[in-house]
Design a protein that fits this description.
Elements lengths: L2 E2 L2 E2 L9 H10 L2 E5 L4 H13 L4 E5 L18 E9 L2 E5 L7 E4 H8 L11 E6 L6 H17 L7 H19 L1 H16 L5 H19 L3 H27 L9 H26 L1
Antiparallel strand pairs: 1-2, 3-8, 4-5, 4-8, 5-6, 6-7
Length: 286
């Protein structure tokens, strides 16, 4: 429905800012958000917060961040990073793509914060204003488990949640006949790129959620979450199998079974297995 460079934008995540907003709300954390018309004002406000020792989250256009290798650069205006300090004309940045702190010159960061195009950041920044001394982590975990499970199982439209995985499988299966081989491969490549490289989709997200379920078992004292964690890890393996098979197909290295029909079948397997996991979570918590 939404396209970037004439290819469909397949998203494997909730809406932008949704996780951050819910986590801060459930923990009772106060967050200030700002956007700017003036680029100089945006940078001056950023400097003022850093001088107070306050880390600042910024929405940027990834293409204009010079510390990204050329092969990693693409026009994506929803890349969030945290500016943690500054050293003369350079900013110290904690970027989720990189393992270590990176540096960025002032003019480059300003350009990235005001990148043009779809979903332009407009200098958007956000920072914490207050944090409770003892947030109720167990209650927040309980609320999060229920919310995610309901979202994945009970969506009002067919292209969200586990129904959305089936929806994608049905579309993917028809690509070769509907689009032709060349366009089908481009669509598949875009799909895998969105799944594995942008955001937290596919196998990577399932592995992360499995780790969360393991920690949730300890926090809440609900031992059955450990078994659900193991099941989610296996789903992550299945998603990764889908990505590897699809990548081979895109690169012209297809093996027996690397077909669009087989890929659609793997997606349906993921959807069915996840339905069982989320249903069991709701049954456990309710």
């Amino acid at each position: 429905f939404i396209r970037i460079n004439k290819l469909p934008l397949t998203t494997f995540r909730c809406s932008v800012g949704n996780i951050f907003g819910k986590v801060t709300k459930r923990f009772g954390v106060s967050v200030r958000r700002q956007k700017f018309h003036s680029q100089s004002e945006a940078m001056n406000v950023l400097d003022a917060k850093l001088d107070q020792g306050i880390p600042v989250g910024c929405q940027t256009g990834a293409y204009w961040l010079p510390y990204f290798p050329p092969a990693f650069r693409f026009h994506f205006n929803m890349h969030n990073l945290v500016v943690i300090g500054r050293d003369k004309d350079e900013y110290l940045i904690s970027d989720p793509v990189f393992e270590n702190v990176v540096r960025c010159r002032r003019d480059d960061l300003q350009r990235a914060r005001f990148a043009r195009g779809s979903l332009a950041p407009k200098g958007a920044m956000y920072y914490l204003e207050s944090v409770p001394e003892r947030p109720d982590v167990a209650a927040a975990v309980h609320q999060g488990l229920i919310a995610v499970s309901k979202t994945m199982l009970h969506t009002p439209v067919p292209f969200l949640g586990t129904r959305g995985i089936d929806f994608l499988a049905n579309r993917l299966e028809k690509w070769p006949k509907k689009l032709g081989e060349e366009q089908a491969l481009l669509h598949l490549g875009q799909l895998i790129r969105m799944q594995e490289e942008i955001g937290t989709g596919g196998g990577g997200f399932r592995f992360m959620y499995a780790a969360f379920l393991q920690e949730a078992a300890e926090i809440t004292g609900l031992a059955p979450l450990l078994q659900l964690s193991e099941r989610m890890t296996l789903v992550g393996d299945t998603w990764r199998r889908f990505a590897v098979s699809g990548a081979r197909l895109c690169k012209g290295r297809a093996k027996a079974g690397d077909t669009y029909g087989e890929l659609a079948g793997i997606l349906r397997e993921c959807a069915q297995t996840e339905r069982g996991i989320y249903a069991d979570i709701l049954q456990l918590l309710n």
